[in-house]
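Example with several molecule types.
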Amino acid sequence: MGETVSVGLLGLGTVGSGVVQMITDHQKELQQRIGCPVEVRKILVQDMEKERDVQVDSSLLTKDADDIIFDSDIDVVIEAIGGIEKAQSLILKALNNKKHVVTANKDLMALNGGELLSAARENDCDLFYEASVAGGIPILRSLVEGLSSDRITKMMGIVNGTTNYILTKMSKNKLSFEDVLKKAQELGFAEADPTSDIEGLDAARKMVILSTLGYSMKFGLEDVDVEGITRVSEEDIAYSKRLGYTMKLIGLAKADNGSVEISVQPTLLPNEHPLSSVNDEYNAVYVYGEAVGETMFYGPGAGQLPTATAVVADLVAVIKNMRLGVNGKSVILPQNEKKLKTAEDIDSKYFLRMIVKDEAGAFSVITNLFKEQGISLEKLIQEPLVNQKQAEVVIVTHKTNQKAYEETYNRLRDLDVVVEVKSRYRVEEV
Amino acid sequence: MGETVSVGLLGLGTVGSGVVQMITDHQKELQQRIGCPVEVRKILVQDMEKERDVQVDSSLLTKDADDIIFDSDIDVVIEAIGGIEKAQSLILKALNNKKHVVTANKDLMALNGGELLSAARENDCDLFYEASVAGGIPILRSLVEGLSSDRITKMMGIVNGTTNYILTKMSKNKLSFEDVLKKAQELGFAEADPTSDIEGLDAARKMVILSTLGYSMKFGLEDVDVEGITRVSEEDIAYSKRLGYTMKLIGLAKADNGSVEISVQPTLLPNEHPLSSVNDEYNAVYVYGEAVGETMFYGPGAGQLPTATAVVADLVAVIKNMRLGVNGKSVILPQNEKKLKTAEDIDSKYFLRMIVKDEAGAFSVITNLFKEQGISLEKLIQEPLVNQKQAEVVIVTHKTNQKAYEETYNRLRDLDVVVEVKSRYRVEEV
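Resulting structure tokens for the full complex:
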């Protein structure tokens, strides 16, 4: 059995406590896998006196990060404080002091992953961040190793548990967004301030990380077209069901001829799509590879122990590398120049729901507009609105490019017969 | 850029041709990932003159395996001939000649994986076999690395595409087993001799490999309780649908208190179970970890390019290890003593369908029997059979141990009021 590996832990909140618990409870199995004991040697906390869920010897606690960064006995630093500035400065300091780093910090990795990974490589240190995307699902590893031989052409992620929970409940129980959000907050599935989840920002950060790895280009948040789920209505969901679709908040990263589009938006998927059965707070990442075809990785996207599982799996990888003397060798930096698609390059089907005047010829005015723009229609529903001289029209187009679609949408809104375009969504198939 | 890595390929059938195609088509990406060119230097074939789908220079072909095994320029041998004896002797010879080996051979790995892995370790060689289970799904890597920190308590696999295709079609189109099998053979989804698929043997081999890795015990085929899908009837599927279940051929490997049960059998899953939506020829492995909870890995279980994807991903891993000088270090041998559950340790719910005499008190005779055995019932359907003095009774039990269940089953068949027990299946939930 090798010498004990010592870990310094930054933060003892939900994730940090889970890590302590796993390292304690699974000590025997960990030793079996890595051939040496692992101990948490010091823990950075804000409040030394606070009551905690997890049992830790108070002598391990410190309020001074330098006690960890400059402890020459500490081999690996686990960052679990979250946030940007402080976490970043501590990770850089740790790397520059030749400590390997494991982090679950998606905000930071999405924002400054490139810089941190370069620092890791320069210092021959590992920097792993499996837990930053889709919690307990080993998706980053699968992209980098399992699918290393293939060319990925499309990734679609349900990478935010809160919004998936909300959309699932809206769909199953025919409830409004507001009602479900309130319920989700009561149950702890949504934060008191849910903005970053429901506006799609959290998912966008994860898509930046996935896209950067999957396409080996350095993407940033500014490359992601983001839209949340706040405007999704019960009617939208009811109509999509009638047409055989399931509504999901999808992070999409799609490559064609070397150019990539990245977006997060409420999207209609055919019911048979593997992602359509991913319900409640679960996450899944669907990866399409040129050779392998369709694959999907499913599991818990958050939660104390699932996240800790990913963090400790990264720790195992670091320690295995230490024992082989190969740390820093598996740090992967983007190798291709970033190329983003233009609106002309983006092809998709679209769903549009609108209120039109219920008068002779109204419908043909609309279909003529689509025809003029070269967009053919795949599905159509027209229904009179009771007691009003209006009808509701729902259209699903065949594939068209985004430019033609946006133009059509704008002209549609100017049509006399169109009272209002109530909603529109992207429709994605395989 | 490093020196070219040379590969010797044993076999140029479906998998072998796919490997050649991927190494050729993805050369640029492979070089980017591993930092050196990869070439297929020699290929063992049976017939030098045969027409092939893939373009290969005829000077690469040989009928003599020694041309590959003893070529000192060849670093890695890819075994794609299948079968047991010859493949085994060639792999051992290659390892003993310090060549790393990648194989897709599930039969061999299930039968003699331990011996081959020991030989690899002794020779400081890698032996990878990701393609042997669930084709394009990187499940072995996920077990060993992504979930390395957790304790796995249950694995359930849809690991045979042919039987999943058959059950899906039977269920969706209300067809008989025989009709669908015939159709599947016409379409190439089932072999001319489908025995090993439909009798569950193919799935059993994969479960041996998964269980050995997941529980770090050396299992063999003799440890798997195997039953195929040939007796699954349209009526069974219709009743399971009515009760909210989906019928799947499930490879189950479940651990409780350090003891493991392994089986392959047609199983009823609740419709909401993630595996219930895995349709057609797709495969998926559901893994339950103590900390992570539910995860699932989904993708193509077979096919030329999906399998080649896994083989070439293993090749990439071998080459990365070569460049780091750490080959043979990630070979994992079972570390725990094998412990199998007894019938008393196996807990499950069960589905039973039987024909009973339609006479007063018949039903209570049956329910009394279950009560005596301490088995309570969760769901019940009783339906008179038209024009017969008989009724059909379908029962789903609550959880019970296998011993009590088998005893009940045997006594049930002896009951006067029971005409025939038509079928019985295990019911698995989370």
